[in-house]
Specification:
By secondary structure, the protein is mainly α. Helix content is about 60%, strand content about 5%. InterPro entries: NADH_UbQ_OxRdtase_su1/FPO, NADH_UbQ_OxRdtase_su1_CS.
């Protein structure tokens, strides 16, 4: 039967007693908080190792309590509210940014959807709940979180936070479109938007092997969604002094930082669920160990995958410099969105042909021919475009004036500074005005210094 015709069977959810639901909710909250505390220390340790530094080593064994000490320090700082701020929105903005970051973990499966584990004698699934449209719920919750950042920038009553909020809004809109297209490819292959069903469809092959382009697109978009380097435009210290959270301090500032790291954990969990088999054991282990995907062991495989993706965030921050804002928007609108849409159409075509019982060879040859034709056409268009540019007569550019704006400015690429005039001593005590680098700089094979000594 086609996966598109299969009915969603989520009857194992919604029957837990209230106390078990509370335990699961507390576990999800504790998992996020502990992972965030560990990730902060891990990030500082890894970046210090990359930069040949020691890193945190004072609080706790090997500095492992450094993030906890930072949190206590932020809470004990003076909490200021600027005079020009819209106080109600100013106070609510960190809450709006932090709460949605915790909500998405509710539909992430930590283990099989069946009654696999026993908690105080009650058999239950290792997941708080699941929905037929769980992935749409995650997208909706992620979209709400951006309101906290935008409102924080607007309500502060300052220019730099406002610019940071506007940057963040434009960045989120740009990258969520490509993220949604990457999700749609997974929906086509799994036949479901339920997170537990998506993991079940990866029992024989992970979607990273079937949908590598979707995985790469999602990896790039999740870095942009979390405002992490090299896409940390909303809080770039070099030009915005800190961005949308410039006017915040104490616990409100800590909530913004908490929301950023919780979002990192959430998008890493979503990536592991959609493309890396979720809670399933890696290939070598699952082949020779039948119990690897039963009991409490799936929780271990899931945590390992999430930590590897968090290391990827840290690796990017310690490796790549921050990009310019125009490069960020160009990547989102001109690269990721077209590539994701074309890839989605390709995946939909393949799935439709597979549902019509076409063989792999019958599908691969036309698809490869279409991709090759598209590449050849793009190459020909680029070639004719370059020839047209070469045929155009180069327009005469005005001479570069470094004092046009009333103060000296550096030249742009392709521009040259005018020669700098200076005076050269002559015989008899007079000085002659010459141009540096001109033909009269050296006269009769005698340098300026020689002439000065002779004079």
């Amino acid at each position: 039967m086609s996966p598109y015709l299969a009915a969603e069977d989520l009857s194992m959810f919604g029957h837990d007693p209230w106390w078990l639901v509370v335990i699961k909710a507390v576990f999800c909250f504790a998992f996020l908080m502990v992972t965030v505390l560990f990730s902060i220390v891990w990030e500082r340790k890894v970046v210090a190792w990359m930069q040949l530094r020691i890193g945190p080593n004072r609080h706790g064994p090997w500095g492992m309590l450094q993030s906890l000490a930072d949190g206590v320090k932020l809470m004990l700082k003076e909490d200021l509210v600027v005079k020009r701020a819209d106080k109600v929105v100013y106070v609510l903005a960190p809450i709006v940014a932090a709460i949605p970051a915790f909500m998405a973990i509710a539909v992430i499966p930590f283990g099989p959807s069946g009654n696999e584990i026993s908690i105080f004698g009650h058999r239950t699934a290792m997941q708080l709940t699941d929905l037929p449209i769980a992935m749409l719920y995650i997208l909706a919750v992620a979209s709400v979180g951006i309101y906290g950042i935008v409102l924080a920038g607007w309500s502060s009553g300052s220019t730099y936070p406002l610019l940071g909020g506007l940057r963040s809004c434009a960045q989120m809109i740009s990258y969520e479109i490509a993220m949604g297209a990457a999700f749609a490819s997974v929906f086509l292959y799994s036949g479901s938007m339920s997170t537990s069903k998506i993991v079940e469809q990866q029992h024989d092959r992970w979607f990273i092997l079937l949908l590598p382009v979707s995985f790469i697109i999602y990896i790039v978009t999740m870095v942009g969604e979390t405002n992490r380097a090299p896409f940390d435009m909303p809080e770039s210290e070099g030009d915005l002094v800190g961005g949308f959270n410039t006017e915040y301090s104490s616990i409100k500032f800590a909530m913004f930082m908490l929301a950023e790291y919780v979002n990192m954990v959430t998008v890493s969990a979503v990536s592991a669920t959609l493309f890396l088999g979720g809670w399933r054991a890696p290939w070598p282990i699952s082949t020779f160990w039948a119990g690897a995907n039963h009991g409490w062991w799936p929780l271990l495989w899931f945590v390992v995958k999430v930590q590897l993706l968090l290391f990827f965030f840290i690796w990017l921050r310690g490796t790549l410099p921050r990009v310019r804002y125009d490069q960020l928007m160009k990547l989102g609108w001109k690269v990721l969105i077209p590539v994701s849409v074309v890839w989605l159409m390709l995946v939909a075509t393949v799935r439709a042909l597979r549902n019509e019982n076409y063989g792999f060879g019958d599908i691969a040859l036309p698809v490869a021919g279409g991709v090759l034709t598209l590449l050849v056409l793009s190459f020909v268009v680029d070639m004719f475009r370059e020839r047209a540019k070469e045929a155009e007569a180069p327009a005469e550019e005005p001479a570069f004036d470094s004092m046009a704006g009333g103060f000296p400015v550096p030249p742009l690429p392709g521009q040259e500074l005018p020669p700098v005039p200076r005076r050269r001593p002559r015989r008899g005590g007079e000085r002659e005005l010459i141009v540096s680098g001109g033909p009269d700089t050296v006269s009769d094979g005698i340098s300026d210094g020689k002439e000065a000594s002779d004079g």
